[in-house]
Design goal:
Length: 277
């Protein structure tokens, strides 16, 4: 039964479960992990469309921000639902308010304290409700968001509250001289390229990616300039990632007995279960 749009909007996780359950039935991989892997894999074709359909240009900057953020939020809602995404919205919202309201001399301290406290509370809650479990939840993206909001606060502190002579070369390159717009901040935190699994970059690097200034022109034989391509690097990294997945899946049966052996004689530990006392 195909869910209607209202049910999909109200509960994206449950509404899309039947589709991912079909994959789970054929692979025996938990549905939450199947969903996560599927959405990560969708980043490849979507990234190609994003690169060529919205090529970096001054007229495409806002469109690239909006498209990237919208897809990332859709991925998040499909993985975690409204309640867990609401926690992430709260963290980024408070940290953005700090950028606007807290003096630049201390904004980095306030931000890192709040972000680390939020992450610690989330992990403690996870231990209380799912101790030893393997269920995917918002704590993964939250750890990435903590890195991003902290990097942004420190970059603003470097660019506004510190003198140029006090900065090293990296800080000079990545500093911010003004608070980013709300769209830039949300795009940085929720873009589909890095929201689910990273990697983390600085806000300056992300903005350079969006406007295309990180692509260096290289001369051709005819003397024309062309945008540097990354296809070879993408293929290599994809191949490396696939190799790691295959090796991990192949070695899981060999690793499991070792884990059960370390838990004590006759004890076994399965996903979501506690070791025997």
């Amino acid at each position: 039964m195909i869910p209607d749009m209202v049910s999909i909007f109200a509960d994206p996780v449950r509404a899309t479960d039947p589709f991912f359950q079909l994959l789970t039935d054929h692979t025996s991989v938990p549905v939450d992990q199947i969903r996560y892997i599927f959405l990560l894999s969708m980043g490849y074709p979507l990234g190609a469309i994003y690169r060529h359909g919205l090529a970096p240009s001054p007229t495409h900057i806002m469109s690239r921000h909006m498209v990237s953020t919208s897809i990332g939020l859709l991925f998040g809602l499909m993985c975690f639902g409204w309640v867990q995404m609401g926690v992430l919205f709260s963290v980024t919202g408070v940290c953005y308010a700090m950028l606007l309201l807290v003096p630049s001399k201390v904004v980095h301290i306030y931000t890192i304290v709040f972000a680390m406290a939020s992450m610690s509370a989330a992990h403690i809650y996870r231990m209380m409700v799912d101790y030893g479990g393997w269920h995917l939840d918002f704590t993964g993206p939250l750890m990435l968001i903590v890195q991003r909001v902290t990097l942004t606060a420190f970059a603003l502190h470097d660019g506004v509250a510190r003198k140029e002579a006090q900065l090293n070369e990296d800080q000079k390159l990545m500093k911010l001289t003004e608070v980013p717009s709300l769209l830039e901040y949300w795009s940085y935190n929720y873009n589909f390229h890095t929201f689910l699994a990273g990697p983390t970059c600085t806000l300056k690097e992300y903005l350079n990616f969006v406007d295309g200034s990180n692509f260096k022109a290289t001369p051709t034989q005819n003397g024309d300039g062309k945008i540097r391509t990354m296809y070879v690097h993408r293929v290599r990294r994809t191949r490396s990632g696939a190799t790691c997945v295959v090796c991990s899946d192949h070695n899981t049966p060999q690793i499991a007995p070792l884990l059960s052996h370390t838990s004590g004689a006759g004890d076994t530990i399965s996903h979501g279960q506690h070791p025997s006392p």
